[in-house]
Amino acid sequence: RAKDGGRRQWREFEPAFRSQADRRHQVEQALGDALAAGDIEAWFQPQIDLTSREIVGFEALVRWHHPYLGPVSPPEIVAAAQAANLPDRLTATVAEAACRLLARLPSLGLPRATVAINVSPREFDLYCVPSLLDRITAAHHIDPALFEIEITEEAILDTLVSGEQLKHIERSGYKLAVDDFGAGHSSLAYLVQLKVDRLKLDRRFITGIRASRQNQEIVGAMAGLGRALSMQVVMEGVESEEEAEALKPLGIEIAQGYFFGRPMPAERIPGWIESRRAALKRAVA
Ligand code: C2E
Ligand code: MG
Ligand code: MG
Ligand code: MG
Question: Domain EAL, which positions (predicted)?
């Protein structure tokens, strides 16, 4: 009886269980063709200097809308790329798009704006990330100082595997950002040693910041840490005007989030920049 019950339970759970594994399998199967067909794109989210209100950069975020799998999330895409042994092709696709945007930014009045890509910690074990980026940025004649690499604290700490590559990143002159800072466990000594340029504070610290004395203290302390270590500090996930206004008194220089701009396809950026400039001018007049 107990056995029957157990079996029935298993049968009940099986369909959902299987469809999840099926989806993962289908995503993996479809990825190579999608990369080759150009169906996997990078969208870009702006980063704003809170004092000058200027656009100081963009972050590239991978996007894939599959005809029958629907939208495939970035974590699903990244996992599939690793399972299908295509992590370098995924990063190459996003890096190429980042370079194409970088090449256009001077003509859009943003000659010093940076473009960032995300690299997952596991990738450093699978291939040489900076060698790939060297080839791509050179082919596009991109100044590495404007090309930013975002990695999480996990990758920073994994120096046994990735130490050489982090040195290579520094040698080539890329900007280096620590993503989701404060969510993991960084060694401050490594941050200094690796000449990290930017700390991107994890979104959890902005949530409800007006009401949370504790989050205000944390964000203020991290802004101070950035100043002490000569690292720019970026607050991500800023969703409202109230949140944006809370940041400057705390010493945060740069912000990114839905309040300033959602991720958008590259072709929408020129129009977005123009309407933003027009709005700022109206606000001053
Ligand atoms: P992340 O690098 O921390 O990127 C920020 C995420 O927060 C993005 O989600 C972005 O769309 C979202 N976001 C931005 N502003 C706001 C806001 O105001 N409120 C809220 N609630 N969310 C906001 P997305 O695009 O879904 O990406 C999720 C994660 O997937 C990224 O987190 C990054 O770790 C990873 N990822 C994205 N693209 C790539 C890629 O090309 N390669 C790799 N390896 N990872 C990627
Ligand atoms: Mg990021
Ligand atoms: Mg991240
Ligand atoms: Mg982040």
Answer: 24-277
For residues 33 and 168, give the distance between their C-alpha atoms in angstroms, rounded to a whole number: 31
Distance CA 235, CA 225 (A): 14
Q: Whose CA is closest to atom 23 on ligand 1?
A: 237
Mutate to test the pocket of ligand 1, among 58, 118, 262 (most ligand atoms within 8 A of CB): 118
Query: Going by DSSP bridges, is the β-strand pair 70-72/114-118 parallel, antiparallel, or unpaired?
Result: unpaired
92 lines ligand 1 (CB under 6 A): no
- pLDDT tens digits, residue range 228-245? 999 999 999 999 999 999
Q: Identify the residue whose C-alpha is closest to ligand 1 atom 11.
A: 263
For ligand 4, the distance from its centroid to the CA atom of residue 179, given in whole angstroms, is: 5
Can you tell me the distance from the alpha carbon of 215 to that of 207, in angstroms, rounded to the nearest whole number?
Answer: 8
Q: Does the C-beta of 95 come closer than 6 Å to ligand 1?
A: no
Ligand 1 close to Cβ of residue 263 (< 6 A) = yes
ipTM: 0.97
179 CB under 6 A from ligand 1? yes
What's the CA dihedral at 55, 59, 64, 65 to 10 degrees? -30
If you average pLDDT over residues 116-128, what whole number do you get? 93
Both tokens of 171, joined, read 């040698």
What's the mean pLDDT when you consider all of the chain?
A: 91
Atom 7 of ligand 1, residue of closest alpha carbon: 237
C-alpha to C-alpha distance for 63 and 75, rounded to whole angstroms = 10
Backbone φ and ψ of 190, nearest 5°: -65, -40
d(CA 62, CA 139) in angstroms, rounded, equals: 21
Which atom of ligand 1 is nearest the CA belonging to 73? 26
| pLDDT single digits (tens) 84-97 | 999 999 999 999 99
Rounded to whole angstroms, how far apart are CA atoms 222 and 196? 14
